Amino acid sequence: MDSNRCRRFYLLTHPRSCSNLLVRILSFGDQPNVAQHNIGQGYFFLPSDQLREELKLQGKNVESWTQNEQDQMKQAYQNCFKELQKHVDVAEAEGKIVFVKEHACFMTEPTALSGFLFGSENLKQAPWTVQVPSTYGTEITRSSLNETVLPDEFLQTWLPTFLIRHPALMFPSHYRTILDNLGVDAAYAEGERSEIMTLHWTRVLYDWYSQHLAKPESGSTSDTSWPLLLDADDIINNPDVVVRLCEIVGMDSTKLQFEWKPAKKEYLAQLNNDVSRRMLSTLTASAGIMKEKSSVDIDISIEAKKWREEFGQSEGEKVEGWVRAAIPDYEYLRAKRLRPSSA
To answer: How far apart are CA 115 and CA 94, in angstroms?
Structure first.
């Protein structure tokens, strides 16, 4: 990895993980050495996820997709990569830090999704991989645990920070946004929900990076070991951890914002659809970090009763099942989280 590419930073997140809160605190508009992208500072692969939804392919085995559907999706992934690479090229030409946010599930390739939902025994297709410029090497490879559409050679040019949140807060929150944005039928589609109500994609990508990024050498002046991992509870209850992240990345920590004014109509008008407004609704109505969004002292059994009341018996039980199934991954990842310098 050359010195220029060491300035590529991925923030790999999950829906409803407080990623918008973290982006708000980092205040990219006040960080002149960081390349700007959009309000969310990323989501380059969101269009491919939106196309899957439009074609009704979410939760559907890739082996049953028509050739036309496969062609459309492959082109969509390629277009997403092209836009990401364009952003990187411009940023590096300007000598700026590249800091991009992406939900890990958006980058997950279809055969991995199908294998997770239906088992890999009957999969005939090889994993999908986008084409990348020759600057990444003449031989493009894909190793174990890389379940994204991106080849190893591209992933290795990034330094990643993963963001997680307690599943008992993430998954019910995401379920509510599905109800509000897409309606009851979409929320009840178990296959579609099962591929997102999991921390599997975060864990395997974290483990991939742990195996493929070099550790600091003995005697090195840097004590930072990649990948990094943040827990939303620490952002909420101990925001000094964001200061530490800022310093590691090379951003100006004096520009961080922990308080702000609720969003004005002009800002909301920049959000180009109702889905974006819904996903950002809590943040845009807030004036700073909301301590009550932490998972401190949360009891899944108590919360499960609330979910059954809110979503109905059957759907509430599904949410509880997803939450409990994700706890081992959450605890595994949380044990590796970044702490403030004083911790």
So the answer is: 41
- Spatial distance between the Cα atoms of 10 and 94, rounded to a whole number of angstroms: 19
The 98-103 sheet, strands edge to edge: 98-103, 8-13, 159-164, 228-231
Task: Identify the sign of the CA torsion 187, 16, 285, 23.
Answer: negative
CA distance readout (Å), 107 to 29, 93, 202, 274: 26, 25, 11, 23
Which residues make Cβ contacts (< 8 Å) with residue 208, sequence separation at least 6?
143, 144, 145, 146, 155
What tokens were used for 112?
A: 């991995």
Mean pLDDT by 10 residues, the chain (343 residues): 67 93 90 83 92 92 97 98 96 94 96 94 94 94 96 96 96 87 60 85 98 65 82 91 93 87 56 49 58 86 96 93 97 94 55
Helix, strand or coil for residue 139?
coil
Query: Phi first, then psi: what are they for 3, rounded to 5°?
Result: -65, -30
Q: Distance between CA 7 and CA 97 in Å, rounded?
A: 5
What Rg, from alpha-carbon coordinates, does the chain have?
20
Alpha helix (H) residue ranges in the chain = 19-26, 46-54, 67-93, 110-118, 152-155, 167-182, 184-188, 190-194, 200-212, 232-237, 240-249, 265-270, 274-279, 281-285, 300-311, 313-334
CA–CA separation, 215 vs 233, rounded Å?
Answer: 26
If you count them, how many residues does the chain have? 343
Residue with tokens 């949380």: 334
Contact 287, 259 (CB under 8 A): yes
91 closest CA partner among 44, 46, 45: 44
Q: How far apart are the first and last CA of the chain?
A: 31
Residue 286: how many other CB atoms lie within 10 Å: 17
Question: Hey, CA dihedral for 156, 154, 139, 202, is it positive or negative?
Answer: positive
